[in-house]
Structures
1.
Amino acid sequence: MLRHINQFASPKNFYALSCKLVHYFGGACLLLFVAGVFGGLLFSPPDYQQGESVRIIYVHVPSAWMSLFVYIVMAGAGTIGLIWRIKIMDVIARSSAPLGASFTFLALATGSLWGKPMWGAWWVWDARLTSELILLFLYLGYIALQSAIEDPRMAARAGAILALIGIINIPIIHFSVEWWSTLHQGPTVSKLDAPSIHIDMLIPLLLMALAYMCYFISAVLMRARCDLLALERNSAWVGELIGERSR
Amino acid sequence: MNRKRRNVVFAVCFIVAGMTIATTLALKAFRENLLYFYSPSQVQAGKAPQSRPFRIGGLVEEKSVVRNPDNLTVQFVLTDTMQTVTVVYDGILPDLFREGKGVVANGKLRSDGVFEAFEVLAKHDENYMPPEVADALAAANKPITVNSVVKPE
């Protein structure tokens, strides 16, 4: 078992395997995205209160989910890299950060566009919005830290510690709407008894969420591959790879 | 697991546990400041600030909205199903302002107990459904459950 993990974790094998994974997840992302966009914008019904404006849910909610998920991936991979010194994990943590920051920005921007017509305000300082903004700053701080430290090993360690400190923000974001009175409404899909969203709206929402997930996986692998080639540029397997290509 | 690795694991656990405790204590200390709005019950119990502006949130009571025909002044009653506060507002209400739905008003409490708002925000609930479904629910006399507007203390 451990040997299998070690084999996957070797940069050479990871590079070969990730090439295939990028194609599979990229293709799945395209299909799901087309289905989700058409389902959400054309076939799903308008809301009984919000009318057509509700359709921004198909962009806003998946990006907000991904902003939390990517942070967990980043902190998890960073911690594994920190403890077991697996280079791939450091690379995955570093590659996740810009993607997570983009998802967070997208969630904040689309939420703002939604807030003006629905609530009557672009921005309010309630617990949900403020903690999500802190998440954006955590991502930006992580990216800044990575580019400030030249030694990749040191940068990965410092980044993992920063990500670990910030992980406390994730449950705060998730539960903020339950713990405090906020302008942002409570949870819809993750309610345990029954999600209070109509099935015709739930299906395109979940399709979009899956499309975002597949996009993240293929994008993070693509970034990690580039990063890995640069890191391992002096190793034998990269030399072989380049030799094969140029021949 | 060698010794060095075990130390790293300890350090990781220490960081996470430390941050959790520190954040929990900080959030407990700032509990009041993290409330985005006060409920009518809290206002009637005198827990809301008297001298400075604050926000009040609740449901707009059915058939309580009175509009002045000459200007934009509007008066309505906010309820959390236990207590009520009368709110006056001079301005344009958001599209989602409805009787029976949640709003958050920003303003000051007058000495006569009426809340004078300078901003009214609509708080939409966590239910999403097509209009036909909402009509069918109304026809069948089934209430749409709202969890997020009125919070238990």
2.
Amino acid sequence: MVAREGGRDSRKVKGVVRFENVGLRYGMGPEVLKDVTFGIEPNSFQFLTGPSGAGKTTLMRLLFLSLKPTRGLITMFGRDVSSLDPDEVAVIRRRIGIVFQDFRLLDHFTTYENVALPLRVLGKEEASYRAEVTELLHWVGLGDRMHVLPPVLSGGEKQRAAIARALIGRPEFLLADEPTGNVDPTLARRLLRLFVELNRSGTSVLLATHDIALMDQFDARRLVIADGRLYVYD
Amino acid sequence: MSTTETPPLPAPPPPAGTPDKPRPAKLKPKAAPVTPIVPRATVAGRALVAVVAIMTFLAALTIGSVMAVRTTAGAWRSDVTREVTIQIRAGDKAVTDAQVRTAVDLARQTPGIAEAHVLTDTETSRLLEPWLGAGLDYSDLPVPRIVVLRLDPSVPADLARLRRTLTDRIPTAALDDHRTWSRRLGAMAEGVMYVGFGLLALVATATVLSVVFATRAAVATNRSIVEVLHFVGARDGFIAAQFQRHFLKIGTQGGVLGGVAAAALFGALMSLPRFGFEADPENPGILTWLDPGWLGFGGIVAAVVVIALVTALTSRITVYRTLRTIT
């Protein structure tokens, strides 16, 4: 593997996501991210890792358009994110699947309704996506848990429900923040395989994790963030 | 990658961007009622129903009272302006009797006067009863004589001419056409209406502010839901519509409760005579005049509709503004 610091790579990167000399600071504080430059290609798989407090969460928030950079350029699917209005942000997010470490399932929705939520916000009729959601729930092993509420689910089941919700809209780019952080090693391997299969079917995947053992199970590009700087190991 | 010991997964979904194609469903769940995105039963929601109900009740009471005052004042004015009176100061009985007869003759000769009626001693004493008490002998008192003239509504009477003729012929006579009373009644009715509009404005402001605070609280309480909706690609309009629907239900429930309560109260007040309090024009009940009429009840219905819509619209605007602070 060859390591290079993102900020020193002047190569023009095209693809799903492109960061160019991105810096971010909160208020008048120090820069949390410094000169971050990298790209995510279509149909690529990468891990994002780094010590706690290094800026991983901030980078993830930039990637799911929850933050705007204080300097530099971010483009997603060819659009400069700084010029997007709220409705355009919503349209871009529909092309991204997000899996949160804390799942973020709606507790008053059943598993089925949680997974169907991205289709519901598109205004689709329930009958039009019922079979699709049901099949996906079976695919992630929640076929017999689709009508229970999240508080009843185990950590692993919640994680799989969150993954199913991220996948139901057939995203072009999947962001997963510590998706194996709450599951045992066996299920973690199974989830990793699920992400790999998804990647093989055409979705770009960025998987943020602290789990070195998990990363060692699959040879993929690694983005390592340390002290606000990003190092890319191709 | 060493994942061979893990159970195999079924085939993954088709790649992004591939066209939709029908998939065989392994299990078709029954169509369940769609769960609202904003949770229905919350303490804040119930409190807001109560607030909206109280506001609607106050607004409906104001509208009904204003309409009742307007209608009653109109009826009183029309009663008052249908009659004029001639007062003749008391003097020597024979002279006064002659003056009364002259006054009646003059009145009857005036076009537009339908009837002239001289109050009898009994009628006069009944008029004085509230001030002097019953059973007194008024014959020694210089009580003025009253001639009540009923106007013909189809022929306008020249009361100015009648007044001049009367004072020329009978210096102790005075014609009272009740214009002062009529003006005072009109001013009072208008005053009550303006006060009512002011109260309505206050109630509307309080309702809007309550809904704004409740909406902000609801968005804050459901912030995690809003964030999830954002992350799955919901537009602000979609999120605002969910809250608007939620608050429209609250506004409608509260509005109907308050409106029905106010209408029932007016209905009860109007029904009082039927339950033993006989309506007596000389001795009316305290609140039996409080009849809003169909216009008033229509106003109450309109208040319910407007408050429900204002609740929904206010929540929508507030959600839009709050969403700008959530990314």
